[in-house]
Amino acid sequence: MTDLNPRPWYVLDGLADDYRKVAREGGDLRMLRALKIIRSIIVNLAIITISLYSLYRGGDPTFVSAVSLSTLALYNGVEVADYAALAAAFAEVKQERD
């Protein structure tokens, strides 16, 4: 990373540096991005399915909704931070190659 183009505050420097290292060693950041999106969709659907099934089986709606919504929020927050680092690394590697 250059000092002329600092990363935004929400991008984790260590994670973005790791992704840049992967790209320099021949890794495909586009494929990694696609896999992360697919993984995120699958995990979100699994959390929603488990929550709906537990409601169907008679679970307490207050408890199930609180736990499932907080789990979804936490997981998606982590995914957004990870995706932001990947996007920043992708942009930095592209800028280095140009």
Q: What features would you highlight for this structure?
A:
98 residues; mainly alpha
General description of the model:
The protein has 98 residues and is mainly α. The chain has one domain (29-97). The protein has three helices and no strands. The protein has helices at 13-24, 29-56, 61-97. α1 (13-24) packs across α3 (61-97) and α2 packs antiparallel against α3 (61-97). The radius of gyration is 18 Å and the shape is elongated. The model has no long low-confidence stretch (mean pLDDT 89).
**Oligomer status:** single chain
The helix fraction, in percent, is: over 70%
- What is the count of distinct domains? 1
| Count of helical regions | 3
Determine the strand fraction and express it as a percent band: under 5%
Q: What coarse outline follows from CA principal-axis ratios?
A: elongated
Question: What is the CA-CA span between the terminal residues?
Answer: 15 Å
Q: What is the total tally of β strands? A: 0
Q: State mean pLDDT (0 to 100 scale).
A: 89
Q: Helix- and strand-based class?
A: mainly alpha
Please outline the major beta sheet: none
- Which stretches are poorly predicted, pLDDT < 50 over at least 5 residues? none
Give the topology string: H per helix, E per strand: HHH
